[in-house]
Structures are given as C-alpha cells and as structure tokens.
Design a protein that fits this description.
elongated, about 85% helix
C-alpha cells in the first residue's frame, strides 16, 4: 500500500468505528432523548481523536505479530 492509501484507510476506519461506538454508548447511557445528537457527535469527536493514531500504529504491529505466529 502507498502512504496515501494508508492515510486514507486509517482516517476512514477511525471515523467509522468512532461513529459506531459513540452511537451505541450514547444510546445506552443517555437514550434517544432531545440531546442525543449533540452527545453522540461529542462522543464521536473524542473517540476519533483517540482512535486515529491507533489506526496507523496498530495494523503494522498486528501484521508483525501474525507473521511471528504464522497466522
């Protein structure tokens, strides 16, 4: 993969995963009341900031581990 593809992939994976996780957590904790959208988007922002760096560093690390384990 090229650097451009890695950056594109990492960005979208982090965004989609943080949207899904924040939706589920907000629905469980706050319900679908009047402030659901605002709380969901705030949770998504926090999740995206946390997951973006991980989406670049974890896949290469996991690939190395899988090669060592011969998976």
């Amino acid at each position: 993969m090229t650097l451009r593809q890695i950056l594109f992939n990492g960005f979208w994976i982090a965004l989609i995963m943080s949207l899904c996780a924040a939706f589920a957590i907000t629905a469980v904790n706050a319900g679908f009341g009047g402030r659901f959208t605002a709380e969901w988007l705030a949770g998504t922002a926090v999740g995206f900031i946390a997951s973006l760096p991980l989406s670049f560093f974890l896949p290469p690390l996991l690939m190395k581990i899988m090669k060592l384990l011969k998976i």
